[in-house]
Write a structure and sequence with these properties.
Layout (H helix, E strand, L loop, with lengths): L4 E8 L4 H11 L4 E4 L2 E4 L4 E9 L4 H9 L5 H8 L3 E8 L3 H16 L4 E4 L4 E4 H8 L4 H8 L1 E4 L4 E4 L8 E5 L7 H17 L7 E3 L8 E6 L16 E6 L1
Parallel strand pairs: 10-13
Antiparallel strand pairs: 1-5, 1-6, 2-3, 3-4, 4-5, 6-7, 8-9, 9-10, 11-12, 12-13
Helix pairs in contact: 2-3, 4-5
Length: 243
């Protein structure tokens, strides 16, 4: 896949993609058009690849793992009974690009979608959670949905910043266990990058505020995943090293 794209999957009970498309175009007359696998949103001049696949026997376990308890048993049972999955793919790089796919995903949800999985971040959400996001498209909410955190025991990473067209963050040589302080640093550094889009040079310093730790910033390639992996960030990593 193109590593500057967002991919979301939406399972449902649809027999065919044509039924969903007809309902979407009829419900949103003048906003969406469709041609040769592409939905075009006239309001934001944005294109979305639209594909639909059949039943996937491994989907339920994938959604259980990716939802970490966010999807209740009733919705998991509905996912188990899905008949097809719609995938929406769009180029990204700005928060408005993300808002566009959130809005289209919500339209698909309204037409019978059961849940949503952000394939490029590995997080799954219930129908109600996605509609809550759709109704509150501020930066903090979008960030919370599209960025997650992982650790290999010694280093801490963000995953999903490529949705904003930015590098992920790695915190290295930290003496701390996973804690609120580590989480706060990753969140605030990431949001600073989204809002300010600073152009860090290797060796630049960063600190959250006076009196807090000072970190050296260096850029590296994303060594965590192979380039073909859906989580791979072609923008690379910004490494924070506590001085």
């Amino acid at each position: 896949m193109n590593n500057t794209q967002i991919v979301i999957g939406i399972p449902g009970v649809w027999k065919s993609g044509r039924v969903v498309l007809e309902q979407l175009l009829n419900a949103e007359i003048g906003r969406y058009t469709y041609s040769e696998g592409i939905i075009f949103d006239k309001t934001v001049s944005k294109r979305f690849q639209f594909t639909i696949t059949g039943y996937d026997s491994e989907l339920l376990e994938a959604y259980k793992y990716a939802s970490v308890g966010r999807i209740d048993e009733g919705d998991l049972n509905k996912i188990s009974d899905h008949r097809s999955i719609i995938y929406l793919i769009t180029d990204t790089g700005t928060i408005d690009d993300i808002r566009g796919i959130i809005q289209l995903g919500a339209k698909i949800i309204d037409l019978g979608g059961i849940a949503v999985k952000i394939e490029t971040t590995g997080r799954a959400y219930s129908k109600n959670d996605w509609l809550l996001l759709h109704n509150n498209l501020d930066l903090n909410s979008i960030y919370d949905y599209f960025v997650t955190y992982i650790s290999d025991g010694e280093r801490y990473y963000t995953c999903g910043m490529k949705s904003f067209g930015l590098p992920d963050t790695i915190l290295k040589n930290s003496n701390e266990e996973w804690s609120e302080d580590v989480y706060s640093l990753l969140v605030n550094f990431s949001l600073y990058n989204i809002v300010e889009n600073p152009q860090f040079a290797d060796g630049d310093k960063f600190s959250l505020n006076e009196g807090s730790g000072v970190y050296r910033v260096t850029h590296s390639e994303d060594f965590r995943y192979d380039e073909s992996h859906v989580f791979y960030n072609c923008r690379g990593l910004l490494e924070l090293e506590l001085l």
